[in-house]
Amino acid sequence: MNNALLDQVAGTVDRQRLIDTAVALVEVPSPTRSAGAVADRLAEILTADGFPVQRHDADWPKAPIVMAALDSGRPGPTLQFDGHLDTVHLPFVPPRVEDDTLYGSSSADMKGGIAAALEALRVLRTLDALPAGRVLLTAHDHHEGPWGDGRQVRAMIREGLVGDAVLLPEYLAEPLPVAGRGVGIFQATIRREGTPVHEVLRPSGTPDVLVAGAQLVNRLHGWNESLKEKAHPLAGHDSTFVGKLQSGEIYNQSPTECIVQGTRRWVPPSSGKAVQEEFSQMLAEVATATGTDIDLEFTVQGNAYQIDSGNSLVAAFQKAHRALIGSPLPIGAKPFVDDGNTFASEAGIPALTHGPAATGAHTLNEAVPVDELVRVAELYALTAVEFCGGP
Ligand SMILES: [Zn+2]
């Protein structure tokens, strides 16, 4: 990568314009499933910038996805920048810039990152720097669980609204994740026949849903130990965790229902489907042993994935990172699940999550340093030049 391009990109990123874009997005509240207004705002910004914008319902007409492309006019691969505009359901904190840091709801997760990706698109256009191919910017709703179910990303994949590779500017600056665990949220509802009854009036042999719940929790606890053997060199190991156990009304009444909720995480190459089947089997054994019925709700939030660390997206990213920072980013795993899991496991395209070193995601104290937004804008522009015009 030549130094002239590096200087041109650094000189073209407009710090104030980037801040203004991020603030304009953050100031529109957008809890998951209600991101329509901020999607409209993003579309307005792109249109005012002169980018042709497409909107697609993508299975959620209340907030059609926003899609804009920068086309070099020459044949080549498409690099996608993708972000979610929705936020977790917490009280809204308005944006403010203080000490060169942007604060406010979704500044970290992840409208700051989306603004940086958009700034990269502007820079690429101003410099006419794309040697070939095109860059696609997409933004959508329905990301944050448990409110969202990922339907818009799946619809984008189904409808072919994806690139040949995708960068996601979530709040992870290090390492560069090439693998990640899948996660399913489970709810086991344990029931017995009959109605709640005083303990001394129970017919003999009445199944005890509390005992069944306790057995299930114990069994999951033991299973978690043995799941550690299912390990992956980067992604860690399988696990299961119980976060909620709920039953009973008063101390001497036999209840009819007990609920156990938690997570089950797995490393590649296991699939969510296989994990769910194994989980169902285990519940059936507990049900038989305790004379209860157990219903399972199992929601796959994201599948496990691994991308080839020798693929052209990783190579382009590392070349750009070396040019900008002086060294490649250490390779590692993604600690959380994001839409990259879906792009990689369901669309089969390389997906890299990399964004600003921001803090406070899923809290009332989100913050992102402006320097980090600038760094991500430069890095995304340089990666696009490498990826789209690569060897
Ligand atoms: Zn996020």
Walk me through what this model shows.
It is a single chain. The chain is of the alpha+beta class and 391 residues long. The chain contains 10 helices and 20 strands. It has helices at residues 3-12, 15-26, 36-48, 107-127, 151-158, 209-227, 272-290, 312-325, 339-347, 370-389; strands at 53-56, 65-71, 78-84, 96-98, 101-103, 134-140, 165-168, 176-180, 182-191, 197-198, 231-232, 236-237, 239-247, 253-254, 257-266, 293-302, 305-306, 331-334, 351-353, 367-369. Strands 1-2-6-3-7-19 form a 6-stranded mixed β-sheet, sandwiched between helices. Strands 13-15-9-16 form a 4-stranded antiparallel β-sheet. The chain has a 3-stranded antiparallel β-sheet with strand order 4-5-20. Strand 1 and strand 2 (65-71) form a beta hairpin. Helix 2 packs antiparallel against helix 3 (36-48), helix 5 (151-158) runs parallel beside helix 9 and helix 6 (209-227) packs across helix 7. The model has no long low-confidence stretch (mean pLDDT 96). The structure holds zinc ion. Zinc ion binds at residues 84, 109-110, 170, 338.
In short:
The chain has helices spanning 3-12, 15-26, 36-48, 107-127, 151-158, 209-227, 272-290, 312-325, 339-347, 370-389; strands at 53-56, 65-71, 78-84, 96-98, 101-103, 134-140, 165-168, 176-180, 182-191, 197-198, 231-232, 236-237, 239-247, 253-254, 257-266, 293-302, 305-306, 331-334, 351-353, 367-369. It has 391 residues and is of the alpha+beta class. It has a 6-stranded mixed beta sheet with strand order 1-2-6-3-7-19, with helices on both faces. The protein has a 4-stranded antiparallel beta sheet with strand order 13-15-9-16. It has a 3-stranded antiparallel beta sheet with strand order 4-5-20.
